[in-house]
């Protein structure tokens, strides 16, 4: 029998106003025989795929089955209003449950946000973990760098508004460098031509003691925590524009003395790996929501007479003929001698005449060529 699922929605972006039915497939691992939980997760994954393909994202909310609230599930911020989700079929493939759903998408124009069609480069350094002793259980010494790589891969696959620049083997110590009076995100962004810095911090990956049977044998796999804080810094101002902590846990299905390779498919296909992966997918939708409605601020990185070079290019979506407005940037120091970036608008508009993967160039013509436009000034797409 077909089951009908209705969702409580929050609406954000806009796409062409029309209703459509879309079929999608999602899957999830069955953990401890809990098929209902696997079904819920698989349906969420199918909906996530459809929404990302239509410029949407979601967070947690309420899930209704046959008019009855069953669990906390999805709260959508999407380009389309999901009116209903119909479960067409499901099947088991080993330890995985695969579902096919039909989703009724209906456009929503009540809230729209202009977009410049550009993607921002986000630099992601190696994840920070203060208590590295937690890596001993499972011999997960490589987890911080692998997590960065996996987060970058998820961002590359799913983000609507950004793409990653991963430095998986390099750590950034924000508190120390900020105390030293350096506007670290701005310095790093200038060095890497990125618009944002995303700092992952592993707060807890500890393992809870397993419950045991009367004879001392393990009754259930121990639960391993996963608590991740992500902080997104603006590359020009250095300010924090978004921060969120994610907390989950899952059975640790490996032997107590096993050496687990966090880069292996065995790890990522385990219950714990899949829980981590779900967190990373959710974080990408949250980052997209934070970047939505934010114009991409490019910077002038070189000037030669009347020609200027911007630090964005084809990988950001820049095309020949695109027009940008120029704003002059300057810094002021506060009472603690910390620099703050400010900008002043100008009447100057430039038209891109050459692009590479990472840069774009334009000519400043006429009387505007005499203006004091310098390296580090800002360009915004019209």
TrEMBL record:
Residues 306-381 form the Flagellar assembly protein T C-terminal domain. Residues 1-19 form the signal peptide. Residues 112-261 form the Flagellar assembly protein T middle domain. InterPro entries: FlgT_C (IPR032388), FlgT_C_sf (IPR038165), FlgT_M (IPR032386), FlgT_N (IPR032370), FlgT_N_sf (IPR038180). Residues 20-106 form the Flagellar assembly protein T N-terminal domain. It comes from the Bacteria. Pfam families: FlgT_C, FlgT_M, FlgT_N. Keywords: Cell projection, Cilium, Flagellum, Signal. This is Flagellar assembly T-like protein.
């Amino acid at each position: 029998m077909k089951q009908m699922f209705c969702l409580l929605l929050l609406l954000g972006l806009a796409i062409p106003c029309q209703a459509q039915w879309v079929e999608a497939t999602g899957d999830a691992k069955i953990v401890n025989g809990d098929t209902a939980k696997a079904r819920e997760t698989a349906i969420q994954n199918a909906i996530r795929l459809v929404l990302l393909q239509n410029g949407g994202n979601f967070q947690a909310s309420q899930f209704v089955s046959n008019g009855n609230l069953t669990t906390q599930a999805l709260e959508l911020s999407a380009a389309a209003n999901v009116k209903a989700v119909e479960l067409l079929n499901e099947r088991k493939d080993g330890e995985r449950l695969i579902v096919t759903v039909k989703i009724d998408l209906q456009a929503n124009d009540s809230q729209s946000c202009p977009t410049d069609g550009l993607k921002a480069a986000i630099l992601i350094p190696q994840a920070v973990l203060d208590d590295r002793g937690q890596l001993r259980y499972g011999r997960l010494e490589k987890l911080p760098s692998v997590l960065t790589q996996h987060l970058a891969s998820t961002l590359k696959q799913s983000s609507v508004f950004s793409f990653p620049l991963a430095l998986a083997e390099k750590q950034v110590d924000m508190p120390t460098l900020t105390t030293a009076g350096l506007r670290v995100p701005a310095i790093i962004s200038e060095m890497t031509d990125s618009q944002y810095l995303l700092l992952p911090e592993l707060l807890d990956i500890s393992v809870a003691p397993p419950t045991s049977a009367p004879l001392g044998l393990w009754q259930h796999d121990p639960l391993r925590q996963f608590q991740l804080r992500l902080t997104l810094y603006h590359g020009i101002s250095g300010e924090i524009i978004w921060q969120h902590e994610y907390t989950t846990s899952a059975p640790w299905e490996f032997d107590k003395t096993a050496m687990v390779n966090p880069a292996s498919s065995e790890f990522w296909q385990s219950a714990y790996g899949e829980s981590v992966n779900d967190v990373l997918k959710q974080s990408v939708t949250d980052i997209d929501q934070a970047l939505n409605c934010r114009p991409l601020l490019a910077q002038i990185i070189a000037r030669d007479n009347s020609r200027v070079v911007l630090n964005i290019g084809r990988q950001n979506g820049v095309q020949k003929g695109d027009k940008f407005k120029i704003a002059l940037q300057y810094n002021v120091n506060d009472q603690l001698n910390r620099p703050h970036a400010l900008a002043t608008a100008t009447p100057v508009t430039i038209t891109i005449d050459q692009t590479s993967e990472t840069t774009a160039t334009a000519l400043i013509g006429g009387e505007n060529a005499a203006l004091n436009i310098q390296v580090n000034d800002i360009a915004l797409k019209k």
